[in-house]
Amino acid sequence: NAMSYRQLERYIEEIRASGQVAPELEVELHNKLGYPVICLVMALVALPFSFRLGRRGALYGVGVGLALGMVFLGLFAFSRTLGEAGALPPLVAIWSPGVAFTIFSVYMFLGVET
């Protein structure tokens, strides 16, 4: 976390040039761009439930949004761990949970009655 994106990128290139593989550093490199996007994804996930007040009330939407946020963060951490272990490519490990939940939220938003 102390290195900037460019510094970490150069450091990974040096490690690759020496013949070593460092998937945990590559995951961290992608995480420097992917982690800030989490805020947008979590807002997108909660958005459909904010419009579904209905009979259940506002707290229902907030509760579902919080639960889905926790599921998303758990999936993100699990995916990141798989990337650090080398089971997933770093790009896939960081971006796949965000893409999956964005698609899910768009699907849920399309079902909102206006």
Walk me through this protein's architecture.
By secondary structure, the protein is mostly helical. Helices cover 79% and strands 0% of the residues. It is built from four helices and no strands. The chain has helices spanning 5-17, 23-50, 58-85, 90-110. The longest helix is centred in the first third of the chain and has 28 residues, at 23-50. The protein starts with a helix and ends with a helix. 19% of the residues are buried.
Features:
114 residues, elongated
Low-confidence stretches: none
Number of strands: 0
Structural class, by secondary structure, is: mainly alpha
Mean pLDDT equals 87
The separation of the N and C termini measures 44 Å
C-alpha geometry: elongated
Task: Calculate Rg over CA atoms.
Answer: 18 Å
N-to-C SSE series? HHHH
Distinct helical segment count: 4
Query: How many strands, what sense, and barrel or not for the largest sheet?
Result: none
The share of residues in helices is over 70%
Beta-strand proportion: under 5%
